[in-house]
Amino acid sequence: MKLKNEIEIIEKKSKFYGYLLECKTEQEIKEYLTELHKQHKKATHICWACRLREPFCEKAVDDGEPSGTAGRPILSVLQKKDEKDVCVVVVRYFGGIKLGAGGLIRIYAKVTAELFK
Predict the structure, then answer these.
(1) What is the CATH number of domain 2-115?
(2) Cα-flanking dihedrals φ and ψ of residue 58, to 5°?
(3) Any idea what DSSP says for residue 5?
(4) Which residues of the chain have pLDDT under 50?
(5) How big is the chain by its Cα radius of gyration, in Å?
(6) 87: which residues sit within 8 A by CB, 6+ positions away?
(7) Which residues face 59 on adjacent strands?
(8) Is 41 helix (H, G, I), strand (E, B) or coil?
(9) How far apart (Å, rounded) are the C-alpha atoms in residues 34 and 75?
């Protein structure tokens, strides 16, 4: 597993940390998530999505965000870019202002897209 890129975006006082990983197995992803949970103990959400080539696997996890507003937008960007053997993790620290479903979908997709620039 290799960390390819990381970014920070602030949206309405919430902080979003994005991590782009090159990985081959679900086990690598689990190990990295364990490390991120230790590193970001006070994070509100740690959402992620992955696409693996062999065996083919796609997963999206919202981690407490409303269903379909975090993991799915991340996965959607990975699919549109036809990225494989990658995982994107977005860590959110809630800033006190609700973004709504549309706002969450936009920011999680934006963080993911920015990781590929």
Answers:
(1) 3.30.230.30
(2) -130, 130
(3) E
(4) none
(5) 13
(6) 20, 21, 23, 29, 32, 48, 49, 50
(7) 50
(8) coil
(9) 20
Question: Does the pTM of the predicted model rise above 0.85?
Answer: yes
The whole-number pLDDT of residue 1 equals 82
Is there a cis peptide before residue 55, judged by omega within 30 degrees of 0?
yes
Q: Which amino acid is at 105?
A: I
Tokens for 89, please give them.
């993790």
Q: How confident is the model at residue 61, as a pLDDT?
A: 98
What is the DSSP annotation of 56-103?
TEEEEE-TTSSTTSSHHHHHHHHHHTT--SEEEEEEEE--S---HHHH
Q: Residue 23 has which token pair?
A: 């990985």
* Domain ranges across the chain: 2-115
In this structure, is the dihedral angle defined by the CA atoms of residues 7, 65, 12 and 93, taken in order, positive or negative? negative
Q: How far apart are CA 99 and CA 83, in angstroms?
A: 28
For 3-25, the pLDDT digits (tens) are 999 999 999 999 999 999 999 99
